[in-house]
Amino acid sequence: MLTVSKLQVGYGQSTVIRDLSFTLGSEEILAIMGRNGMGKTTLLKSLIGILPARSGSIRLGDHDVTTLESFERVRSGIAFVPQGRMIFPALTVEENILTGARGTVDRSVWDEIYLLFPVLREMRSRKGGNLSGGQQQQLAIARALITNPKVLVLDEPTEGIQPSIIKDIARALKEIRKLRRIAIVVSEQVVSFMMGVCDRALVIESGRFVHEAPRDTLDANKVKALLSV
Fold this sequence. Notes:
globular
């Protein structure tokens, strides 16, 4: 579904992502793990087009999206849930979700979103700024889903969220994969969350992958050690 080859990305004179390559299978949930400053967010921003690639390529299925603008990548099928959620606090829940839509949204799409996130149905007329952090995260995911993506990209979805809501988000991501049959890339530092949701994990350090394993053979202690170095 997604193929990244020899990608280099940076800021100014600094190179952050260094000749990085990976693939994402159809309906796979891939975790990108690493300490702060190791390149997770830079990588995800390059996937969605917020940061341009200096070299290398990004392909969505058979289509090269490397030079496309962010809105063009969204139209092609990549949706992004940014770190910190970035919802619109003065808009209602439904208005926030509609900011990701193009044209009329079918009733079945609303039903599916509210099935995934029942709390959003209850609060659909409430201002986004009045929601808790966990509720705002669910709202940000719903806004991304309204674009009908082939690949959903999430940056640190558990940041600042209470443990009970983290479990809800893990459940929702697996249900989204099942209902929409899409692929998911999630950047994360919480090993327990990653172990509960991903099919495969990659650990990034200084812009390069230093460890990779499917969940079934993943050594959680080794990952924790890499994240604490």
